[in-house]
Design brief:
The protein has 160 residues and is α+β, with helices and mostly antiparallel strands. The chain is built from five helices and six strands.
Length: 160
């Protein structure tokens, strides 16, 4: 997602900007103080839910709408792919379900960062299913009035 150094810099800037607000009170207090941020958080999470649904249904049109033209995926193995490669990969999946948990979102103007855990279930030969769990960070940008995924970093979740 364009390229890791840019995504990392944006994420670091957003995290740094969010630190004083977090110190001022609880998350609930911050939401009451800034309803626009709460609305933006809800909008970003709604787009992410559309993205997850599009992966499960292999809905190419929705994937193209949700992913920014400059979208870059930074895989846990250190490789990167762009929007076209990412969509082509999803269209080949035989994903049974994807569950998102432990999600939090930080919004700063027209940029948002979502942290979470994704649990994937794929058919596995000789068993009911194969599972995979990953921690992720997605950077969203607001363009033309809508939120779009600019960058995604995924890495294997540590065993619990």
């Amino acid at each position: 997602m364009i390229r890791t150094s840019c995504a990392g810099a944006v994420a670091a800037a957003i995290l740094a900007a969010s630190q004083p607000a977090a110190a001022a009170g609880t998350a609930a207090e911050a939401e009451v103080a800034d309803p626009a941020s709460t609305t933006a958080q809800q909008q970003v999470l709604a787009v992410e839910d559309e993205w997850v649904d599009a992966e499960i249904r292999r809905d190419e049109a929705t994937l193209r709408r949700v992913l920014d033209e400059r979208f870059t995926l930074n895989h846990g193995n250190g490789t990167t792919t762009g929007k076209e490669e990412a969509i082509a990969g999803v269209l080949k999946w035989n994903l049974i379900t994807e569950t998102i948990t432990e999600r939090s979102v930080l919004v700063d103007g027209d940029t948002a960062v979502v942290f979470g855990t994704a649990n994937f279930v794929f058919p596995a030969e000789g068993t009911n299913s194969g599972t995979s769990a990953a921690r992720y960070m997605t950077i969203y940008v607001k363009r033309d009035g809508g939120w779009r995924a600019l960058a995604l970093h995924m890495s294997a979740r540590a065993p619990q």
